[in-house]
Write a structure and sequence with these properties.
heterodimer, A: mainly alpha, 56% helix, 0% strand, B: alpha/beta, 5-stranded mixed sheet, 4-stranded mixed sheet, 32% helix
């Protein structure tokens, strides 16, 4: 099973208040979208609930891009 | 039991975000967007015991009963200047009560641990009237040079008088040890026999880990209580959450799909006052007439330990 990347982008867009069209896998959550550190935690928690997985603090801390968070969730699904 | 009276007491000194921005590298926008806090009350010349006594007297006055009618006093407190005697005993003497007293340290959840204890004593037939007081001064646990921590907390005291009734429908307490996620150590008196170093550390907080625990615990606790009592989230009139961070409260609210009006806030005025936050909020709502008889109320708190607690009651 792989995460639905469109769903991930939709969750991020809703959380940050930007258009999904602005988000690619290379988009940086903080640098490009203006997310703060709690936004990243909140997005991680939303995805954890969606996919019933738990990311460690280290995994969340390493998230820079949208692709990073997709990879982190995928690593728990495979 | 049933809550029949509430009271609270605050220090005089107001510390705004603007004042903090002159002490550490922070600013109002940063603090407000991440926490919801605009100002907090901080102990200066007052003593914590004076605030606890003031809150207790106001709760008794609101309840319309005498201190002599109390059967038990429970005081939740993390730290105060007296290691001994217990703060509850100091309160007992000041208000003129004669009943047994005990202090508990349930971190930010202490008030709900107190409510749970009061209910258990009542159900066992040992008490009719119980005073639960929460008094906290986290401003003296932390470093005022640590910008990640000093902006979060405020001091204060809140109290509730509980009496006979079946209004407490269910409670839930949890604990899952995670010592170094949120802790403080203080020096003890020197002993010629102690061979360990004396450590004195201001409050350390792993913010993101605490945030995650708090939100998950609150959601889990509230769902547990709703399942246990057979209510849907919509049936609850008010959700009173520990005022630690507005974003935790918002996350819980969004997951429960409830309107903002059901989640009253006062964090903007007081910051995180540890276990005093719920009785202070309860007292504000009570005195403003915003709690109607028969309303279904859920209280939820989370804190160092980690511990969490929740209660569903009829007002």
């Amino acid at each position: 099973m792989q995460v639905n990347e469109n769903l991930v982008k939709s969750i991020i867009a809703n959380k940050i208040g930007v258009s999904e069209n602005e988000i690619t896998n290379a988009t940086k959550l903080v640098a490009d979208l203006g997310a703060d550190s709690l936004d990243v935690v909140e997005i991680s928690m939303a995805l954890e609930r969606e996919y019933n997985v738990t990311l460690s603090e280290d995994e969340t801390a390493k998230v820079v891009t949208v692709g990073d968070i997709i990879a982190a969730i995928n690593s728990h699904l495979n | 039991m049933k809550i029949i009276g509430t009271g609270c007491s605050h220090p005089q000194k107001i510390v705004t975000n603007q004042m903090l921005s002159q002490m550490v590298d922070t600013n109002d926008e940063w603090i407000v967007t991440r926490t919801g806090i605009k100002e907090r009350r901080v102990v200066s010349s007052e003593t914590l015991e004076d605030m606890a006594i003031d809150a207790a007297r106001k709760a008794l006055g609101n309840a319309g009963i005498s201190a002599k009618d109390l059967d038990f006093i429970i005081c939740s407190n993390v730290v105060n200047e007296y290691v001994t005697p217990a703060l509850s005993c100091i309160i007992q003497g000041a208000i003129g009560a004669t009943c047994p007293c005990v202090d508990l340290n349930g971190a930010c959840v202490g008030f709900l641990y107190g409510i749970d204890m009061a209910e258990a004593y009542y159900r066992s037939g040992r008490v009719k009237n119980v005073l639960v007081v929460s008094a906290e001064e986290p401003s003296r646990m932390l470093s005022w040079e640590d910008r990640t921590v000093c902006v979060l907390f405020g001091d204060g005291a809140g109290a509730a008088v509980l009496s006979e009734g079946d209004n407490i429908l269910a409670t839930r307490l949890t604990a899952s040890s995670s010592t170094f996620s949120l802790y403080q150590k203080h020096e003890l008196q020197p002993s010629p026999f102690n061979t360990k170093p004396n450590s004195n550390l201001p409050l350390v907080m792993c913010g993101q880990e605490v945030f995650k625990f708090a939100a998950n615990a609150s959601i889990s606790d509230v769902r547990y209580l709703l399942d246990k009592t057979g209510y849907q989230p919509d049936a609850v009139d008010k959700y009173l959450l520990h005022q630690a961070n507005v974003r935790i409260i918002e996350m819980v609210r969004e997951i429960l799909k409830q309107p903002k009006e059901k989640f009253p806030l006062n964090i903007q005025k007081y910051g995180n006052t540890s276990s005093a936050s719920l009785p202070i909020l309860l007292d504000e709502l009570n005195r403003e007439g915003r709690l109607k008889e028969g309303e279904l109320i859920v209280l939820s708190a989370f804190g160092a330990g980690f511990v969490s607690g929740s209660c569903i009651m009829r007002w």
